[in-house]
User: Fold Holliday junction branch migration complex subunit RuvB from Amycolatopsis magusensis.
Amino acid sequence: MTEPEPDLAESETLSAFAQTGDRDVETTLRPRKLDDFVGQPRVREQLQLVLESARRRGVPPDHVLLSGPPGLGKTSMSMIIAAELDAAIRITSGPALERAGDLAAMLSNLAEGDVLFIDEIHRIARPAEEMLYLAMEDFRVDVVVGKGPGATSIPLEIAPFTLVGATTRSGALTGPLRDRFGFTGHMEFYSADELAQVLRRSATILGIPLEADGEAEIARRSRGTPRIANRLLRRVRDYAEVRSDGRVSLDVARAALEVYDVDELGLDRLDRAVLSALVKSFHGGPVGVATLAVAVGEESTTVEEVCEPYLVRAGMLARTPRGRVATPAAWEHLGLRPPTEVPWEAGRFDQGNPGLFG
Ligand SMILES: Nc1ncnc2c1ncn2[C@@H]1O[C@H](COP(=O)(O)OP(=O)(O)O)[C@@H](O)[C@H]1O
Ligand SMILES: [Mg+2]
Assistant:
């Protein structure tokens, strides 16, 4: 038996990362075709062109990189790419490819036109990454046999395939790896309307009677993230079944979200910790992201790539050359009165600003 992770206990409902209970239901709820995929109109249109053109030419499409915060549909989109191509998909992840041999085995088992999906591709080990360069470019790997001066490298042909990589940290990819992708799709947070569509679709699949205003309420509080929207829908359904007649109305949705401690904007534990540190410990900033991360006991990369993008999008946090600052909306969200002189406005007239041109 494993202990629940204590610092996750409160935040699980709102985490954009997949939780243990999500796996099965996510499989059920995953869109299968590009047309079922809600939102991301740019990525969808661009991918449609990439895929259709490859299909007409009868070749596997260029390698595709999908980047964006967790829960926005990268894995779903990868599977859709394979489905649209009528291709088989092989799934692995960066951390699983510790040795080059692990990757060589996967690559040599590919059939022509297969899609190889590497999740968290920024975490791939260096030797495997170097093997991947050659595989992506020339559909070839060099397998090294033996050690030291007697080592020989045996070139091995592999079938033309399409690599689909997913990453929450495209900035952490090395230049050579990034350059070998023919197309990069950046996934954005979803609007409340788009999340409402996701919810409608999920409610139909799961047989949950979801009323329009209940749907809008859950959508608004799902942190722009379909994974969270789907999870909140299931939690609100639980509440509706136990405490009410099973229908998800506005009142039921509100009462349920109250019980699960979901705030008005659906900010998660880390979002709230960051805002609160920024406002209370640093008087609204500006403060460097590394300092902010230490204050909330998280890694800078998590704060930067998971938490900040949403706070910026929600208009709570601004990134300035001198550091992060809280907007008046952030103060108000925490129930505090914003200072009369707003830090980034002061910064704008600060001639000594080193970050702008330095
Ligand atoms: N555009 C979308 N339309 C409908 N459902 C979506 C969409 N994007 C994500 N989802 C839902 O959210 C869940 C998490 O998506 P996933 O592809 O695993 O995200 P990521 O790989 O980016 O973390 C999926 O199981 C799916 O149910
Ligand atoms: Mg994923």
Notes: Residues 92 and 118 are 5 Å apart (CA to CA). Residues 192-259 form a domain with the Helicase, Ruva Protein; domain 3 fold (CATH 1.10.8.60).
